[in-house]
Amino acid sequence: MGSPHWKRLCFLLLAGLTSSLLLYGHYYTTVDVTSPADPPLVSSPSLLQPEPLVLAPPGTSRRAGSHVGQKVDPGWRLNRGPLPSQPSRCPLSVVARAKADPTFGEIFRFDTPVLMWDQHFTPETWDRLKTRHVPYGWQGLSHTVVGSTVQLLNASANRHLFDRDTFPGGCVRCAVVGNGGILNSSRQGKAIDAHDLVFRLNGAVIKGFEEDVGTKISFYGFTVNTMKNSLIAYEEYGFTQIPQAKDLRYIFIPSDIRDYMMLKSAIQGSPVPEGSDKGDKPQKYFGPEASAEKFKLLHPDFLQYLTARFLRSELLNTQYGSLYMPSTGALMLLTALHTCDQVSAYGFITSNYEQFSDHYYELEKKPLVFYANHDMMLEAALWRRLHRAGIITLYQR
Ligand SMILES: *[C@@H]1O[C@H](CO)[C@@H](O)[C@H](O)[C@H]1NC(C)=O
Ligand SMILES: *[C@@H]1O[C@H](CO)[C@@H](O)[C@H](O)[C@H]1NC(C)=O
């Protein structure tokens, strides 16, 4: 059991259990990712849906197409609470570029709330979100746990990812660093660290890879499941601790009641009182400094909007539909796109992903692992299109 190989195998079994199934790539064999010309975006069934999608709750029968085009209540538009009042002063921002693009101009909705904070926890929001399963809502979750967690997010820092006033230069430049093998020997560390803010996620190994991935870290994004799995699976590559630093902020993706429980305990600085992480000390992951300012919570409406408009996978129409969600990397990149002025993506899946190892820190090349709950080919197509539209800069080689 001590050998790295076994640890990895155990992790895969673990991940397989939580995701119910691992796909072995054959799911995607019909997708020709190397085709030189992508089909026009407007004809893609996965993008450009005029209305947000209602993601059917688990156990609901999924007749093909039964939920497509269904309208949802516009509650989050009417009841989104106060928005951060910090408009960008950057002339060449993501917002400007997206709005100028005929296709993406129709997809982006920059008025969607990105984060959730105390004022969002109202009876109306509860009634609306309790009808959607995680991560898009609160179906089946304890009102007490969710409410007491969200109500702790009462600092002004919980309402925005960062304070624009600290970037007087105008344009806030962000790098989002995925863990893809493309970064091995890339020597992009300096370029990454030159950004104002750097997002990292899951098994973000830095030590020993500084030249390739840099050292700066402003945000670390995760679900409790992916964070703990990363500590197990990538321990052999030196990922023995969640990154910690004074100015580092943690972005919780609320994919399970575990995430709300861990977040609450982290702010309170106390062990997790119940559930599958019972007894876990949040300080072990996030360091000794416990305060609401340190933590951000993605809004379930934001996750719903991202999935419906940017990453509406065909997997939603399969028996795994209720498990599907965009990958942690995709959620971080899209979060950056809705908050930063300029966004560079490093270590994300590219058309030639087969040339690279799964992660940049593996010692020998391992093929990319496809999980049943993600759609990496759809994500790859989205990054390619955003890059071509000049909305992101995707690192490729
Ligand atoms: C947030 O809530 C906590 C606990 O209820 C309270 O002690 C604190 O003063 C509040 N902070 C702000 C900024 O309102
Ligand atoms: C990383 O890059 C080096 C140099 O290009 C190469 O020799 C090595 O095989 C790569 N490692 C993996 C895991 O792909």
UniProtKB/TrEMBL annotation:
Residues 58-79 are annotated as: Disordered. It is an enzyme of class 2 (transferase). This is alpha-N-acetylgalactosaminide alpha-2,6-sialyltransferase. It is found in: Golgi apparatus membrane. The lineage of its organism: Eukaryota, Metazoa, Chordata, Craniata, Vertebrata. Belongs to the glycosyltransferase 29 family. GO terms for biological process: protein O-linked glycosylation. InterPro entries: Glyco_trans_29, GT29-like_sf, Sialyl_trans. Pathway: Protein modification; protein glycosylation. Keywords: Disulfide bond, Glycoprotein, Glycosyltransferase, Golgi apparatus, Membrane, Signal, Signal-anchor, Transferase, Transmembrane, Transmembrane helix. Its EC number is 2.4.3.3. It comes from Calidris pygmaea (Spoon-billed sandpiper). GO terms for cellular component: Golgi membrane. The keyword DNA repair does not apply. One of its GO terms (molecular function) is alpha-N-acetylgalactosaminide alpha-2,6-sialyltransferase activity.
